[in-house]
Write a structure and sequence with these properties.
heterodimer; A: alpha/beta; Fumarate Reductase Iron-sulfur Protein, Chain B, domain 2; Glutathione S-transferase Yfyf (Class Pi), Chain A, domain 2; 4 domains; five-stranded mixed beta sheet; 25 helices; B: alpha+beta; Uridine Diphospho-n-acetylenolpyruvylglucosamine Reductase, domain 2; Uridine Diphospho-n-acetylenolpyruvylglucosamine Reductase, domain 3; Alpha-Beta Plaits; 5 domains; five-stranded antiparallel beta sheet; 17 helices; globular
Chain lengths: 438, 492
């Protein structure tokens, strides 16, 4: 974020909490787990250093200077430091509150304000507009325009950032998932559970295949799946960018939507969304009307791997003879502490070999819109990630978050690594498919 | 600092930028020891030995103090730029230059993270033995400066036992080599002299270390006791029986509670103390040793003994031990730790003295330490926003060190003297002893620019500007100024 002027210190609205700041005892055990510290070696871009800067602002030793703001936004918010921290510093919460302070207080240039408003307030909260955008994008891909522009080399004339964004776009499905399936899909007998399915916004439009795979596997395991049509974006992007108010509005809406459904758990398959849904309880803790409801909502949220791990997988599973490199999405591993379940699921697939990956617990550099806003750092982190993935010699790369999937696809393309990037649930769905035929 | 000096510095390390922004200087004002704070004027990130030498020569030309820094995890203020000047941050010199399995050694740059070395040689069946609790972050260069230890030093020794040779930029910028590639080289043991000099004898730019074969078998036991005294007696019993475990660690009740909250390893929250005991080596005889240890624990009224069932449980228990300091952060905003060493036969007395000190100052003290070699780590819990409490903490720290020395021990086992314990050195050493140290320091660091004013109370050159009428340094004024500076740091 490009801010020229210094802002005064924190005000009282969603201020980073002092007792959470002082949980950091400055031991430094987080340093080597932080992607930006590993890349730069600068203390200000380490978790410990960022907490120290937040502390300095909190104590009035420092204003929110342009440099302070820059250091806050260079953080990927991957929360690897939380897993490393023995003192249990809630770093993600501190960072998001600090960014919230900056966002509310910072005077932005008009163009920037307009763009942000369009994206965060005008677009993401409105599913129908998003669907419209995805339709246009699909028309662009399928109507021949994309091929024409690519062959003509038009993108070489565009700024590098736009060119890369265009290249990252996956092939769009004909219709968003929520518009192509009934609201209720019955579970295979004996049906034991009814789950609510959180489809998200980006996943819904761009990754309908992953959603189809998810519901098929859930159904095969006796879960009836309810996908309410009126659900909205989880608000994770807003939260990371410091727009807490809009994030709260989206949270209230989703809570109300799922309260109307008679479901045991609320399943999702995007690590970033899952982490956000689970944090509604903290986000709305000060809202007297929603605090309890948020608590009931968040405690029912489960990643699909978490949900499936609760009961033994039902058969028959056919063989998927592939060497798979599994890469942990940060918001699954660090924010939700889910490490083993996806690996266990993959290992139950006959013929599938799980390849060990060095630093699989490290961020890939996607981090929501970070790969666009901080492309240079994002690429440096991605390069290292691709070296480790290539060393695992995989047939397939698996990771459970749309941002990570797009980022790793870009990485594979740049590194010349011939391995498709899929969601783990797609491998499981493939195994069921093969199992049906044999 | 003069802009022209900064320009010269920038030219040396280009294209790596300098850090001079106030926000950056703020985060470099302290390391793992947060009671004292002093911001540098500039931080540089050299990427080669030549750059380090050039920076040091520049500092000499302009009479600017400098200090090397690794990951900043030190616990005695060793990387603090006490008098401002240049922080030479070594973290970008982090390569493994050579691995020689046949001769069991590796050559590494000082900014390499300790654990990264063990990970790099792990597949070949080797590891680097010194394992400070911060090994996942701290650097080999910092380990050399502080002569770092770790839980496994009981059997394998500290850093100095694993360093064969050093490439060093002396405080005047000259490049020299100490030791070599074998265990003992002819002439004076300058490697031994340099390791543990806490950054006052120069800056190490390459280290030749020993790497060891991983043991065939490792067995990890946990023994729980009602009291710290009973656990201490078991420690004496184990060592007295002629068994040298690879590690022998103790935690008291307060620490057990914090660690259990952090790792959920089913530790009993009502135990007064636990011993974490590790045996390693060849398989033959290990079961018998483990049984003897269990028997000795039983004879000392232990509640029960638990054996780690697999590598995962072993790793979890060690994670708990190594992150114990951080886990204490769950109980308190700040802690102040010492690492005084006492003869292990006097452990029960030492722990009683700690309890008395805890009561005297009304402060909670948690204990987690290397019981096998008597290396205490009392953690005094406090809140730095309470100025009056900070004063009590400092007094308690003073009394703890005094108790260690009274019991025939020393001020520090591995954290170093740095800034914080400098003024306690006369408790341990006579004026004659200290004078030899000062003269050795004079040989290496005559300008006193290299990490000034650390480790030993100096006489002579005074950088705070206090001089008497005839131009000689005024020690009384210096001491007064130094004390005032320290007070100011504490208040800050």
């Amino acid at each position: 974020m490009n801010v020229k002027a210094s802002l005064p210190g924190f005000d009282q609205v969603d201020r980073p909490q002092r007792d959470k700041i002082s949980t950091c005892i400055h031991c430094g055990l987080c340093l080597d787990k932080c992607p930006t510290y590993r890349t730069l070696g600068t203390e200000m871009d380490s978790p410990r250093g960022r907490v120290y800067l937040i502390k300095a602002v909190d104590e009035g030793r420092l204003g929110m200077t342009p440099n302070f703001i820059e250091h806050m936004y260079l953080c990927l918010d991957c929360r690897a430091c939380e897993t490393a921290c023995p003192s249990h510093v809630e770093f993600g919460d501190l960072m998001e509150r600090a960014r919230g302070q900056i966002e509310r207080q910072a005077p932005r240039p008009l163009a920037g304000r307009l763009l942000r408003w369009l994206v965060f307030r005008g677009l993401f909260p409105h599913p129908s507009l998003l669907r419209g955008l995805f339709r246009l994008l699909r028309l662009y891909q399928r109507g021949g325009l994309q091929r024409l522009l690519r062959t003509a080399g038009v993108f070489n004339l565009l700024p590098a950032r736009l060119k890369d964004m265009e290249a990252m776009l996956p092939d769009l499905p004909p219709r968003p998932f929520t518009r192509s399936v009934p609201e209720y899909l019955p579970g295979q007998e004996p049906a034991t559970r009814t789950v609510g399915f959180f489809a998200g916004c980006v996943m819904d439009g761009l990754f309908a295949d992953v959603h189809n795979a998810t519901t098929r596997v859930l159904q095969a395991n006796g879960c009836g799946v309810r996908t309410p049509r009126d659900q909205v974006c989880c608000g994770a992007l807003h939260m990371h960018a410091g727009d807490r108010e809009q994030a709260k509005a989206l949270a209230r809406r989703n809570i109300a939507v799922f309260e109307r459904q008679d479901v045991d758990v609320i399943v999702n398959n995007a690590a970033g969304c899952g982490a956000q849904l689970k944090s509604y309880v903290e986000l709305l803790a000060d809202d007297p009307q929603f605090a309890d409801r948020a608590h009931r909502f968040s405690e029912r949220v489960q990643d699909v791997s978490e949900c499936l791990a609760q009961e033994p997988l039902r058969g028959p599973l056919g063989a998927v003879p592939k060497r798979v490199a599994y890469d942990d999405p940060c918001h699954l591993l660090h924010a939700q502490r889910i490490r083993q379940q996806p690996r266990d699921l993959l290992q139950q697939i006959p013929g599938l070999e799980l390849a060990p990956v060095t630093d699989a617990d490290f961020c890939c550099g996607a981090a929501g819109i970070y790969s666009i806003t901080h492309q240079d750092m994002s690429r440096r982190i991605l390069e290292r990630k691709m070296e480790h993935l290539a060393a695992a010699e995989p047939d397939v790369i698996a990771t459970g978050n749309p941002g990570c999937m797009m980022q790793l696809r870009t990485g594979a393309r740049l590194a010349g690594l011939d391995a498709p990037v899929v969601h783990p649930i797609e491998l499981l769905a493939a195994a069921y498919e093969v199992g049906k035929k044999t | 600092m003069e802009p022209s000096v900064l320009q010269e510095l920038a030219a040396i390390v280009a294209p790596q930028p300098l850090l001079t922004q106030p926000e950056a200087m703020l985060v470099y004002e302290c390391d793992g020891h947060t009671l004292d704070k002093a911001p540098p004027d500039v931080v540089v990130f050299p990427t080669s030995t030549e750059q380090v030498a050039a920076v040091v020569k520049l500092a000499n030309r302009h009479d600017v103090p400098f200090v090397a820094r690794g990951a900043g995890t030190g616990l005695s203020g060793g990387a603090l730029a006490l008098e401002g000047g240049i922080v030479i941050e070594m973290c970008r010199m982090n390569k493994i230059l050579e691995i020689d399995y046949g001769n069991q050694r590796a050559v590494v740059q000082p900014g390499l993270v300790n654990l990264h070395l063990s990970l790099a040689v792990s597949d070949a069946g080797f590891y680097y033995a010194p394992d400070p609790s911060s090994q996942g972050s701290c650097t080999i260069g910092g380990n050399v400066a502080e002569n770092s230890g770790g839980p496994h030093t009981l059997k394998y020794g500290v850093t100095t036992n694993h360093v064969l040779g050093l490439e060093v930029v002396l405080p005047n910028g000259d490049l020299v080599h100490f030791g070599g590639a074998v265990l003992d080289t002819p002439g004076y043991d300058l490697t031994g002299l340099f390791v543990g000099s806490e950054g006052t004898f120069g800056i190490v730019t390459s280290v030749t270390v020993r790497i060891m074969r991983k043991p065939q078998v490792v067995k990890t036991l946990l023994a729980f006791f009602d009291t710290v005294e009973a656990a201490s007696n078991a420690v004496s019993g184990i060592i007295g029986a002629g068994i040298i475990p690879a590690a022998l660690e103790m935690m008291d009740n307060l620490t057990i509670q914090a660690v259990e909250a952090a790792i959920q390893a089913s530790l009993p929250l009502d135990a007064g103390a636990l011993l974490l005991i590790e045996l390693d080596g060849i398989e033959d005889g290990m079961e018998a040793d483990a049984q003897r240890i269990a028997d000795i624990c039983q004879q000392n009224d232990c509640q029960n003994v638990r054996v780690a069932q697999d590598d995962a449980e072993r790793a979890l228990l060690w994670k708990g031990r190594k992150e114990a300091f951080g886990a204490i952060g769950r109980l308190t905003p700040n802690y102040y730790t010492h690492d005084g060493v006492i003869p292990r036969t006097r452990l029960p007395e030492a722990l009683t003295r700690l309890q008395i000190i805890s009561h005297r100052y009304g402060l909670r003290i948690a204990n987690v330490f290397h019981a096998g070699d008597g290396n205490l780590h009392p953690l005094v819990l406090y809140d730095e926003r309470d100025g009056e409490e900070v004063e009590r903490v400092l007094k308690a720290g003073h009394d703890i060190l005094q108790a260690c020395v009274d019991l025939g021990g020393v001020l520090s086992g591995e954290h170093g003297i740095g800034l914080e314990k400098k003024n306690c050195m006369p408790w341990l050493f006579s004026e004659g002893d200290l004078d030899v140290m000062r003269r050795v320091r004079q040989v290496f660091n005559p300008q006193e620019l290299c990490n000034p004013n650390k480790v030993i109370p100096l006489r002579g050159r005074c950088r705070c500007g206090a001089v008497t009428g005839d131009g000689t340094p005024d020690h009384e004024t210096h001491e007064a100024v130094a004390t005032a500076m320290q007070d100011a740091h504490v208040r800050a």
